[in-house]
Write a structure and sequence with these properties.
With 300 residues, the chain is α+β, with helices and mostly antiparallel strands. 38% of the residues lie in helices and 19% in strands. The protein has six helices and 13 strands. The strands form four sheets. Strands 5-6-11-10 form a four-stranded antiparallel sheet, with no helix packed on it. The protein has a four-stranded antiparallel sheet with strand order 9-8-12-13, covered by helices on one side. The chain has a three-stranded mixed sheet with strand order 2-1-7, with no helix packed on it. A hairpin with a 2-residue loop joins strand 10 and strand 11. Helix 1 packs antiparallel against helix 3, helix 3 runs antiparallel to helix 5 and helix 4 runs antiparallel to helix 5.
Length: 300
């Protein structure tokens, strides 16, 4: 996402900036379904655009066999069905379903396409897992759960295709609506003005330095703050990176360096891992998050 301000300051209890996070009531079931449909539109368009651009022969040349190509086509079909299902559900409930946005995906080559697919599927799992606690309707919760399990299978299959551990951790990581939207916003160019306004806000982007190489517990890595500078406000001594997990966040000191912050990867994380920057080392909420999440693939 583009950041209009050049400096964003961290206050002791939250964020001080030109556009602070607004307080809001919890999302309704309709909000969550619209949010889910927004994500499914993104995935659906991503796969359709990638498969329109790359042929089976290009997949094979990139090291993926014909079976893998056929299964990616099945993944694409699944995402299309998810869009149809959520659209029908919202329509039946009397709501106007959000339409697809305009996207900018990194489709430079097949390997980049599949690497991005792996990230999106992992984020999809975390999105449904994080939203589940806010769904009031048992029927909607079951529907979301049925999509979540398929997204998890997609994620495992694609990770295996990339020679990564298919199921890298014993627990998946839930993300908040705002955390997920922050990650999705990096691919969204614009959305129809007629779409329902979602109760979400994108935080400033945070990304792992592409030069990080293989990342393991104990690795020192740089988290980049692209196009903006993040610094502690007066009276705040330390900025932290909070690594998110279902059992609670792990905090490490984030040391300011040119272009971002240097952090040490803590123990206990593997696979697609998420970290946010914060001034608080006790809890992670949308009110205490200053930037991120960054996505970090942690190897064993």
């Amino acid at each position: 996402m583009k950041i209009s301000q050049s400096i964003i300051a961290l206050a002791a209890a939250g964020i001080v900036s030109s556009s602070p996070l607004a307080k809001r009531a919890g999302p309704t079931d309709a909000d969550i379904l619209q949010y889910a449909l927004t994500l499914e539109h993104l995935e659906d368009n991503f796969y359709r655009q990638g498969l329109e651009k790359f042929t089976e022969a290009q997949f094979v040349a990139a090291g993926f066999d014909a079976t893998f190509y056929a299964n990616i086509k099945k993944v694409s079909s699944d995402e299309t069905e998810h869009v149809k299902y959520l659209t029908a559900g919202l329509t039946a409930a009397g709501a106007k379903p959000v339409e697809a946005c305009t996207y900018n995906f990194p489709l430079t080559d097949v390997k980049t396409f599949i690497a991005t697919a792996s990230v999106l599927e992992g984020v999809g799992v975390s999105a449904y897992l994080g939203a589940a606690a806010d769904i009031m309707s048992k029927a909607y919760l079951t529907a979301a759960g049925s999509i979540l399990t398929v997204e998890a299978r997609h994620s495992s299959y694609i990770r295996a295709g990339l020679k990564q551990t298919p199921f890298a951790a014993p627990f998946d990581t839930p993300l908040t609506l705002d955390e997920v939207y922050t990650l999705a916003a990096g691919f969204i160019t614009s959305c129809p003005a007629t779409n329902a306004k979602l109760p979400v806000k994108a935080f400033p982007a945070l990304m792992l330095d592409p030069a990080a190489g293989t990342v393991k517990a104990g690795s020192k890595v740089k988290l980049l703050t692209p196009k903006y500078t993040l610094k502690a406000a007066e009276g705040v001594a330390t900025v932290y990176a909070a690594f998110i997990s279902v059992t609670g966040p792990t905090f490490v000191v984030a040391t300011p360096v040119d272009g971002g912050f240097e952090v040490t990867i803590p123990k206990g994380f593997s696979g697609q891992t998420y970290a946010v920057l914060t001034s608080c080392n006790e809890t992670v909420t949308d009110d205490t998050t200053a930037a991120g999440p960054a996505i970090i693939e942690v190897s064993d």
